[in-house]
Design brief:
The chain contains six helices and ten strands, in the order ααβββββααβββββαα. The protein is an alpha+beta fold. It has two domains: about 220 residues, no CATH class; about 45 residues. Strands 1, 2, 3, 4, 5, 6, 7, 8, 9 and 10 form a ten-stranded mixed β-sheet that branches. The termini are far apart. This is AsmA-like protein.
Length: about 270
């Protein structure tokens, strides 16, 4: 019996050791896969990461070249790109949830704003996707929700810096290059933590709202309204011309009929 118990203990130790070895040797790939999975679920577009580097023993990590693809119907390949994202991990929190990330710094983020020929804005469509994915997550049953959510996280401080906004407005045939103001966010996830999908939605919504604010300052909305007003006026002018032409043709036909009647009565 003692031999059996000892054998079981040895097997458990081997299993735990193997599990830890797999975790530490594949942590970069695991984090990369989680970002792409939960990010794509939140945005309902393809989220891709070039590579991830995590030094768990040092509490240090970095994510390189993260991109959020545009929704369908737009020319630009991406709506958002993040150059290098550095982070500091609270090593005391890695034993249990919520896991704490002390700081995240996103360098050289790029926001690509586009209004297509149908006058749809990609950032507005992306924001609608974020809202829809949140509603879908809330509608799931308890077990489904638990399976889909993943670990809970807290981010103490997050900074976007040195960012740019590239705007492509097809109806105006214009391109713009704007500065993205620095964004500072604190205590994401609250005291209980939030899932990766929840954090993704909150962070991207703040980023999109900041970009939209800068775009409105540029007066793009006003230019589009002016363009639409001019288009409506042209349509009304064409309608008036067609009506005048139709009225003129009717008068000609009436005159012909009157002349014909006169000739018949003579």
């Amino acid at each position: 019996m003692k031999k059996i118990i000892l054998s079981l203990v040895v097997l458990v130790v081997i299993a735990i050791t193997a599990g830890l070895f797999y975790l530490f040797t594949n942590l970069d790939a695991i984090v990369k896969g989680a970002i792409e999975k939960y990010g794509s679920e939140a945005t309902q577009t393809a989220v891709r990461v070039d590579r991830v580097r995590i030094k768990l023993t040092e509490g240090d990590g970095a994510i390189y070249e993260l991109s959020v693809a545009n929704p369908e119907g737009f020319d630009l390949p991406n709506a958002i790109t993040l150059g290098e994202t550095g982070m500091g991990i609270d090593l005391k929190s890695v034993r249990e949830e919520p896991y704490v990330i002390n700081h995240v710094t996103v360098r050289e983020p790029g926001v690509f704003f586009e209004i297509n020929a149908d006058k749809k804005a990609n950032l507005y469509e992306l924001k609608k996707n974020l809202v829809a994915s949140r509603a879908a997550g809330e509608d799931k049953s308890g077990s489904e929700k638990a399976d889909a959510q993943g670990p809970r996280l807290i981010i103490r401080r997050l900074i976007f810096e040195q960012g740019r906004i590239t705007a492509k407005v097809t109806p105006l045939d214009k391109d713009y290059d704007l500065e993205l103001p620095a964004i500072h966010m604190t205590d994401l996830g609250g005291s209980q933590g939030a899932t990766a999908s929840e954090l993704t939605r909150e962070i991207l919504q703040r980023l999109i709202d900041t970009a939209n604010k800068e775009i409105r300052k540029k007066g793009i909305d006003a230019e589009l309204d002016k363009l639409e007003t001019e288009a409506r006026e042209k349509v009304e002018e064409e309608k008036a011309k067609m009506k005048d032409k139709a009225d003129s043709e009717i008068e000609k036909e009436k005159k012909k009929a009157e002349d014909k009647l006169k000739n018949m009565l003579q």
